[in-house]
Design a protein that fits this description.
The complex is a heterodimer of chains A (about 280) and B (about 400). Chain A is about 20% helix and about 25% strand. Chain A has about 280 residues and is α+β, with helices and mostly antiparallel strands. Chain A is built from seven helices and 14 strands. In chain A, strands 1, 10, 11, 12, 13 and 14 form a six-stranded mixed beta sheet that branches. Chain A has a four-stranded mixed beta sheet with strand order 3-2-8-7. Chain A folds into two domains: about 140 residues, SH3 type barrels (Roll), CATH 2.30.30.240; about 120 residues, no CATH class. With about 400 residues, chain B is mainly alpha-helical. In chain B, α1 packs parallel to α11, α4 packs across α5 and α9 packs across α16. The mean pLDDT of chain B is about 90. Classes of the chains: A alpha+beta (about 280), B mainly alpha (about 400). Chains A and B meet through β3, α2, α5 and α6 of A and α4, α12, α13, α14 and α15 of B.
């Protein structure tokens, strides 16, 4: 995927969320568990990627999410733990993995609590824990460090609030729930990936198959394609300009995880099936 | 020359590594009970695992992503987690069955009770997974597993009426003494034994461990399309020799010793030695694969560093999961559950869990953004969809058949 091309479309749920985060040496540093958005001059941008139990719990929401977050808080050595967030300028490339630069890799490696604890207390105490096939990599992180540059901005909002939110049209009939968000790369020439401007959201009345990769383009073997198309014929694409995201996100509580209010599409807005965009 | 050697080694280990405790027990049990009338399931299952493994191996080589990465990505965190729990339950059950199989093979060789061997086998397994390099582990047990060719020799030595067998196998019918539901239940079990989800977790993660690139696709395909069917021939040989020796005498397979009986009857002492070596290598090799698969899948779901290509300290969570699953599998076996019964259940539950992993792979193998020119072609998709249907039918039918037939009794 050539994500550097300005104006390229990126489906955030399909291509970013739940993808592997990889450091410059190929080290595996967690999955993208949530994304943070922020508003700049009336536009919404993807601000940072989040990973780790706290971010996953927040996206999960509900009782299970609250439990996981409570356990994470209790087990964390800091009095007031903060989840890790990698600002988008540290992302160098997006293909089947999300590649981050060296400083982000270091920050992620030094904040994975369970990994560091197991390294120190279990694996390094077993004979042969240091031997392996690779000799040409840098030192192994064994101690936790706080990285203030890799913490969420207070104004940023998790995307988990938008995914799953109910959308209604101006006559107050439901268009379904948000299953996908598209962003456009808006290259200002300073960063490898460019900025990701939130463009549109896609809502669906079907709960199955939203992330299979058929939401924006029909692909795959005929039978599967037809089946998913039939399930998703009611999908609708709504431009963010036709929604009041600001009011919606302001009403949402970050600790809730799931959306509690609805999004309403403006009158006279153009709402189409994603294939007809 | 080096290239020829690499191809030959890959094919040989694919043959030797194809058979595990599930294939040994299920094929012998089916042969002893149904003769060759269920043998048609083996090629169906073998072609299925070829299609499935080729797709997952291709995705791994092109994108660098192994199976559970893709499952979470395409099903989302919630469905992915349910999938992880189900797949891990089946893989863990298989791991316990393989460790039990190693212990039973050692019991046959030493006359020391299998339950005394189990803790020892569990420890040895963990040491191998902890210390031995990936390539060594894969090749050593795969090559030693070739000893199971003795089943083919035995089938030949026993000299059944090949024409008669061939016509029975080509025109399968339910034996007069058996119920249709029981026949169908064993068909699902045989299919589950040939097409086990862990094989794909291991195959695709192994591709990442060995740093496959698109250039390696030819080699991968040779392993899959030559090695797996030849390995499947071993399954056929096990069933045929059981059908020749055990069926006429009315012996039903309840122990690993009975699986070996036809070989001993046909080839004597040397056959016994080879069959024991084959049992040990096949089950120990598969125990390594399932043990690693548990670690691979959990780590890939959460995005943790995994693999034996990094030193253990860099993949502490992965190695902790592997260690814990070895301990838990030994614990399960020490409840004195019968490993053969565990095997019979594990192959049926494999069939149940199969669509969960099969479907996301089929979808990703069609994703142009990931796969570029290596996306599924017409043949791969036609076969892929046919098998999607077969896999779904087997999965849906498995549990009702199990209840209806009281697990094939």
């Amino acid at each position: 995927m050539d994500s550097r091309k300005p104006g390229a479309e990126l489906a955030l749920n399909l291509r970013l969320l739940d993808h592997q985060i990889m450091g410059p040496e190929g080290e595996l540093l967690g999955n993208v568990d949530n994304l943070l958005m922020e508003e700049v001059d009336g536009h919404w941008f993807v601000a940072s990627l989040m990973t780790g139990p706290a971010a996953a719990a927040q996206r999960q929401g509900g009782r299970m999410g609250r439990w996981v977050e409570a356990i994470w808080r209790r087990m964390h050595p800091d009095a007031d733990p903060v989840p890790v967030a990698v600002p988008l300028r540290h992302v160098t490339k997006v293909d089947s993995a999300v590649h981050v630069d060296e400083s982000a890799a270091r920050a992620l490696a030094q904040t994975q609590g369970i990994e560091l604890w197991l390294r120190e207390n279990v694996i390094s105490r077993l004979p042969g824990g240091l031997a392996g096939d690779d000799d040409d990599r840098g030192p192994v992180a064994t101690h936790r460090r706080r990285h203030p540059g890799f913490e969420p901005d207070p104004g940023a909002r998790p995307i988990g609030h938008l995914l799953g939110a109910e959308v209604r049209d101006s006559e107050d009939s439901s268009l379904g729930r948000v299953i996908e968000l598209t962003a456009t790369t808006d290259d200002d020439g300073t960063e490898a990936l460019g900025r990701l401007r939130l463009d549109a959201l896609i809502c669906s009345t079907s709960r199955i198959g939203g992330e299979l990769g058929y939401t924006l383009t029909p692909e795959g073997p005929w039978v599967v394609r037809r089946l998913v198309q039939a399930l998703h014929r009611g999908d609708r694409l709504v431009h963010v300009d036709d929604l009041d995201l600001h009011a919606f996100l302001a009403a949402e509580k970050p600790e809730e995880g799931r959306a509690t209010t609805r999004l309403t599409v403006r009158r006279n807005a153009e709402v189409t099936h994603p294939y007809d965009r | 020359m080096k290239k020829v050697f690499a191809v030959a080694l890959g094919i040989l280990t694919a043959i030797g590594g194809f058979v595990d405790i599930g294939d040994l027990v299920t094929n012998a049990a089916v042969g002893a009970r149904f003769g060759v009338s269920l043998l048609w399931v083996v090629p169906v299952g073998v072609l299925g695992i070829c299609v499935f493994a080729e797709m997952s191996g291709r995705v791994a080589a092109v994108s660098g992503r192994a199976t559970f990465d893709l499952i979470r990505e395409r099903l989302g965190p919630r469905m992915g987690l349910l999938n992880l729990l189900a797949s891990m339950a089946v893989t863990f059950l298989t791991l316990a069955a393989e460790i039990g199989g190693v212990a039973l093979a050692l019991e046959l060789a030493s006359s020391v009770n299998a339950y005394l061997w189990i803790p020892f086998v569990g420890t040895a397994l963990w040491i191998v997974l902890w210390r031995v390099k990936f390539a060594v582990l894969e090749n050593a047990f795969g090559l030693a597993g070739l000893a199971l060719i003795v089943f083919a020799v035995a089938a030949w030595q026993l000299g059944p009426d090949w024409g008669e067998l061939a016509s029975q196998a080509a025109m399968p019918s339910v034996p007069a003494t058996e119920d249709v539901a029981v026949y169908a239940y064993y068909a699902v079990a045989l299919f589950g034994a040939a097409m086990t989800p862990y094989e794909v977790f291991f195959f695709s993660s192994g591709g990442v461990e060995e740093h496959w690139k698109p250039e390696n696709l030819k080699l991968m395909r040779a392993n899959v399309f030559i090695g797996f069917p030849l390995g499947g021939m071993l399954s056929v040989a096990i069933a045929v020799s059981a059908a020749t020796v055990l069926l006429p005498r009315g012996i039903e397979v309840a122990t690993l010793g009975q699986v070996a009986m036809p070989v001993v009857a046909a080839t004597g002492k040397i056959g016994l030695a080879l069959v024991l070596l084959g049992f040990f290598a096949a089950t120990f090799g598969a125990a390594c694969e399932t043990g690693l698969s548990v670690g691979y899948s959990v780590s890939q779901y959460f995005g943790w560093q995994w693999g034996k290509f990094v030193e253990p300290l860099r993949a502490a969570r992965f190695h902790t999961v592997v260690l814990l699953s070895c301990v838990a599998a030994v614990g399960l076996l020490l409840t004195t559950v019968d490993p053969i019964m565990l095997t019979e259940y594990s192959v049926v539950f494999s069939a149940v869990a199969l669509p969960l992993t099969y479907f996301p792979i089929l979808v990703v193998a069609n994703d142009r953004t990931y796969m570029g020119e290596h996306v599924n072609g017409r043949v791969a998709n036609a076969l892929g969809v046919v098998y999607l249907v077969i896999v779904l039918v087997a999965s849906i039918a498995a549990i009702p058949l199990m209840i209806l037939t009281k697990a094939g009794q």
